[in-house]
Design brief:
The chain has 6 helices and 15 strands.
């Protein structure tokens, strides 16, 4: 049963913006044997606050993935506290990775961390990042989702480290677990988690269908033209960001043999050989 008072505390870093919403969420789990998840960027005030709230009881530091708004604080605090860093190595260097994060323990799917207060189960959820992990705290019926699920916006999937197919598969994977609350990497806690998961999957598949429909109309076009058509419901100022997810959709469709890319004209079209 879920405790009457949660042992999961959310602390928001002061790095709000287009990609981060109000800021990156760090989480302290426990009261006496504390696990810190996602210390966030190297913002002195934020890291000092985590140390203060941890009250010398932080025993380990976990990260969900190695993007620069989630993991750089890990090395700083790990050195100060002399506690192990846990997570996964950078898998693909796409220039958007925090290479300072070097885990003392590499976590694998299905690993568990047990304390006298709580358990953490590790779930490998590639998609937003190939080394992305979610963390289930069964006693709290809570899933810490990092950037796998955020509150307030959809997740950017940037190829080559990001994968739309892996993202959709990883979303479906979460439905195999028991939890009633999502603790996201950005934004407020989310209830009714499986409705959230179903909505995200449906939204992504609807966007994929729109890619196919627009390619039928346009015959062939480059990504810069296609993003304006597929994301015509999104502020044009955000199209450069949407372009990353569009290209992830196109890569998935190419793997499914639905689209083809002409390397000479650098245009996409539907595969008419099917």
């Amino acid at each position: 049963m879920k405790a009457s008072k949660s042992i999961i505390q959310k602390i928001i870093a002061s790095n709000g913006g287009v990609f981060t919403g109000p800021g990156t969420n760090s989480y302290l789990i426990g009261t006496e044997d504390i696990t810190l998840v996602d210390p966030g960027p190297k913002i002195d005030a934020h890291l000092s606050n985590l140390l203060k709230l941890g009250n010398n009881k932080i025993k380990r530091i976990l990260v969900t993935h190695t993007h620069p708004d989630h993991s750089p604080g890990a090395k700083v605090l790990g050195d100060k506290l002399n506690v192990p860093l846990m997570g996964r190595l950078v898998a693909k260097d796409d220039s958007r990775q925090d290479r300072t994060f070097k885990p003392d323990q590499i976590l694998s799917h299905g690993d568990t961390i047990k304390t006298s207060e709580y358990t953490i189960e590790v779930i490998h959820t590639p998609g937003h990042a190939s080394n992305h992990l979610c963390y289930l705290v069964p006693e709290e019926e809570t899933m810490l989702t990092g950037d796998h699920i955020m509150n307030g916006s959809t997740v950017v999937i940037a190829h080559p480290d990001g994968s739309m197919k892996e993202y959709l598969d990883s979303l479906a994977l979460l439905k195999n677990y028991v939890f009633n609350r999502i603790a996201p990497g950005h934004g407020d806690f989310l209830g009714d988690p499986f409705a959230v998961v179903d909505w995200i999957i449906a939204h992504r598949l609807e966007r994929e269908s729109k890619v196919v429909a627009k390619l039928k109309l346009l015959s062939s076009c480059n990504s810069d033209t296609l993003v304006k058509e597929v994301y015509d419901d999104v502020d044009a100022k955000l199209h450069p960001i949407a372009l990353w997810s569009l290209e992830a959709h196109l890569k998935k469709l190419a793997d499914d043999q639905i689209t083809v890319f002409d390397t000479v004209s650098k245009t996409w079209s539907l595969n008419h050989n099917l």
